[in-house]
Automatic annotation (TrEMBL):
It comes from Cohnella silvisoli. The keyword Iron does not apply. Keywords: Hydrolase. The gene is dgt. It comes from the Bacteria. It holds the Pfam family HD_assoc. The keyword Hydrolase applies. InterPro entries: dGTPase, dGTPase-like, HD/PDEase_dom, HD_domain, PHydrolase_assoc_dom. This is DNTP triphosphohydrolase. Residues 57-218 form the HD domain.
Length: 438
């Protein structure tokens, strides 16, 4: 058996045609799933529907998949050990990385990171359960989504499932902030054991997907921010000491912050240097593009994506006794460029997410999710206002899932607009018709 193409449930391939490669089937199952379509209505940075220009979760996922697929192809030519196929977790298949990139954000609820934060708080405070977007991915892929002949999600290949699993541990274990819910961890862990995956190491494909996600965040979100006028391309904006301080604060407050990566570094000096370099590069490209902002934004984004993507490589990770996908220069991890990427990510976060107008929208979305949760969380009343197919799914699985988890599933699957629609049905003073279709 090819362990990379095995499936957890359709082990004999009786529900799948033989006319396509297994990864082609995975790709089709993903892009034709309702969960994937709903990404078009979920926030990336700006609320979905804020404008025709700005990215949604769907366009972000497509862009990550394009970057990851091309980098995967280059790595396959660059590193001879990949062709030896010595271990299923030490291989990089462009089609697998593409599928994983398309699926990596399926678990995000409406209203971006704020929605995730609120659902997690409500579930933990009231029921001792966690909510986390990466874990919700597997809840969707392994249970909530349905395909013909399967009652167990999309039943993707082991390669794709493990390529999505960038946090390879159970989130329900004490102290874990990210991972996989225990209900789905059993299946994921069994695949990891079959592959002989070491410790908490992720496959090379999962690491590559995760790094390309960071590349997209640190370049595309800035493009949206410039277009929205949140990032002003002038020296007064980029030399503001308050901006520098806020960027540093976000870097050090990040849960993934490692002091070792910033050892002996003057953070203030480096942040100022990166910001000024970014502005000076803009000024050069602006002149090259005949002072046309739209062309300049696109070219600026393209050059930074190329800069990061061309540095992606693979090195040995002695501590984990495994391989590591990271930014590499001359055979060593390029820490300086990784710091630059982190600074640009935090620049986007500070100027976009922390903007007081965006925070007002977040407060509005927090209120909506809290009140929707209050309407659905109790079975006695919630089952009367949830769609029949969701109720049928709960009745068939209630020995495995508590009602509160399914209620969270329902809310988290909503697009921004649909969440507002249901909220208006419950709480707004307006007339409606029962013949309006969801």
């Amino acid at each position: 058996m090819n362990v990379r193409k095995m499936r957890l449930y359709d082990t004999e391939n009786i529900h799948s045609g033989e006319d396509r490669d297994e990864y082609e089937k995975d790709y089709a199952r993903l892009i034709q799933s309702p969960a994937f379509r709903r990404l078009q209505g979920k926030s990336q940075v700006f609320g979905a529907g804020s404008g025709d220009y700005y990215r949604t979760r769907l366009t972000h996922s497509l862009e990550v998949s394009q970057i990851a697929r091309e980098v995967a192809r280059r790595l396959g030519k660059q590193y001879a050990f990949l062709s030896k196929k010595e271990h299923p977790g030490l291989m990089i298949d462009p089609e697998v990385v593409e599928c994983a990139s398309l699926a990596h954000d399926l678990g995000h609820p409406p209203f971006g990171h704020k929605g995730e934060e609120v659902l997690d708080r409500l579930l933990q405070e009231q029921h001792g359960l966690k909510y986390e977007g990466n874990a919700q991915n597997f809840r969707i892929l392994m249970f909530l989504e349905k395909r013909a002949g399967s009652g167990s999600g999309l039943d993707l290949t082991a390669s794709v499932l493990l390529a999505i699993n960038k946090y390879p541990f159970c989130i329900d274990d004490p102290g874990r902030l990210k991972g996989v819910y225990s209900s789905e961890w059993e299946g994921i862990n069994s695949l990891r054991q079959t592959w002989g995956m070491p410790g908490n190491s992720a496959t090379l494909e999962a690491q590559l997907m995760d790094l390309c996600d960071d590349i997209a965040y640190s370049t595309h979100d800035l493009e949206d921010g410039i277009r929205a006028g949140k990032i002003q391309m002038d020296r007064g904006f980029f030399e503001d000491d308050r901006l520098v301080t806020q960027v540093i604060q976000e870097i050090t407050n990040d849960p993934s912050y490692s002091e070792a990566n910033w050892e002996h570094v003057d953070k203030t000096a480096m942040v100022k240097e990166v910001l000024i370099h970014y502005l000076e590069q803009w000024e050069i490209i602006y002149a090259e593009c005949d002072r046309e902002p739209s062309r300049t934004r696109r070219e600026m984004k393209a050059r930074w994506v190329r800069k990061f993507a061309n540095e992606v490589g693979i090195i040995d990770d002695p501590e984990a006794n495994w391989k590591k996908v990271t930014l590499v220069r001359e055979g060593k991890q390029n820490i300086e460029l990784l710091r630059t990427m982190e600074i640009l990510k935090k620049l986007a976060w500070v100027t976009l997410i922390k903007d007081f107008r965006v925070q007002r929208l977040h407060k509005r979305s927090e209120v909506m999710i809290e009140r929707l949760w209050g309407s659905f969380k109790n079975y006695d009343t919630g089952h009367l206002i949830i769609p029949p197919d969701w109720l049928e799914s709960y009745e068939g699985q209630k020995d495995k899932w508590p009602w509160e988890r399914l209620a969270a599933d329902y809310i988290s699957g909503m697009t921004d607009a649909y969440a507002e629609k249901v909220y208006a049905e419950f709480f707004a003073s307006r007339s409606g018709s029962i013949y309006e279709r969801d």
